Amino acid sequence: MRPSVKVRTPSIDRAYKKYTNISKSVVFQASTLLRNEIITSMQQSPATGRIYTRGGITHQASSGGNPPRVDTGALISSISTKQNRAGLSIEVGTSID
Fold first, then answer.
1. What does pLDDT average to over the chain?
2. With contact defined as beta carbons under 8 Å apart, do 48 and 61 qualify?
3. Inter-residue contact 93 to 34 (CB < 8 Å)
4. Residue 6 Cα distances to 9, 13, 67, angstroms
5. What residues form DSSP beta bridges with 79?
């Protein structure tokens, strides 16, 4: 039989749990801010690009170097966050190709 040693460190365990929860909260808040900033920048992107018609509707695109202009709203609606299982990593992105 192998000897085993069990060390109990309740104060370290509590601190680990506390700071893990704080970290999860900060990561969530940062991802929400990023998502909101992406959406706002698209909504406020200047209409300085080319003008084109698609499906009978005229649209003016953003110019190069600016976020894409809102056209149908599908891109903005698809921007989401996806949290990993541990909650310490969150992806901000879209499902649209």
1. 91
2. no
3. no
4. 10, 14, 56
5. none
